[in-house]
Design goal:
Helix 2 links the parallel strand 3 and strand 4. The chain is 25% helix and 18% strand. By secondary structure, it is α+β, with helices and mostly antiparallel strands. It starts with 15 loop residues before the first strand and ends with a strand. The protein has a four-stranded mixed β-sheet.
């Protein structure tokens, strides 16, 4: 099943825009934009990720909402 046909693992309804490549819990790998934003604001951003839409949506969210810059890495195929 491709990422385009998946739903957000957290809310179960949103279309995923980012995949956590090193998830703490494998049941939560795919995140929609709203849930990903909530993670960042909570202070628990995804550190190793893959953008699923071809646009840097998650990278933009990090720039807009992350006050503590950590070492993030964009996973390539």
């Amino acid at each position: 099943m491709g990422a385009h046909s998946r739903k957000c693992d957290w809310c179960g309804s949103g279309t995923p825009v980012v995949r956590d490549m090193e998830p703490v819990n494998t049941a939560f790998q795919y995140w929609c934009e709203e849930c990903a934003r909530a993670l960042i604001i909570k202070g628990d951003p995804i550190e190793t990720y893959r953008e699923l839409d071809g646009e840097p949506i998650y990278g933009r969210l990090l720039d807009e909402h992350c006050t503590l810059k950590r070492f993030y890495s964009f996973a390539t195929a």
